[in-house]
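Worked example 3 (structure in, sequence out).
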């Protein structure tokens, strides 16, 4: 890698870091001066669950852009098994291991 390309990458990363800081610091500063109402704070507790659901649902439910609720949909089957394991055991590690195992086996066998 030549020096100019390396410098460009460093400048690019520094610029992205600066843009990230520039968009977050003012909001965090404003929030430190103005406390959130209890209703807004309660509503914000659901944001991580909503974001995670929005990321996972298309992966699990869609195949090639269409709804895939078939028996051969490995992500769907593994997700349902993982939900069941999580509900019954409350063990994050066991849920991940069983879900991953079901996914790999289902994808290989079916």
């Amino acid at each position: 890698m030549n020096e100019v390309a390396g410098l460009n990458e460093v400048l690019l990363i520094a610029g992205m870091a600066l843009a990230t800081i520039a968009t977050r610091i003012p909001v965090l500063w404003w929030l430190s001066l103005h406390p959130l109402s209890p209703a807004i704070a309660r509503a914000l507790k659901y944001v991580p669950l909503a974001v995670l659901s929005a990321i996972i649902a298309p992966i699990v439910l869609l195949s090639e852009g269409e709804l895939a609720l078939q028996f051969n949909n490995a992500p769907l089957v593994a997700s349902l098994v993982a939900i069941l394991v999580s509900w019954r055991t409350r063990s994050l590690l066991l849920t991940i291991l069983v879900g991953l195992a079901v996914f790999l086996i289902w994808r290989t066998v079916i």
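Notes: Helices lie at 3-33, 38-44, 47-61, 74-89, 92-109. The longest helix spans residues 3-33.
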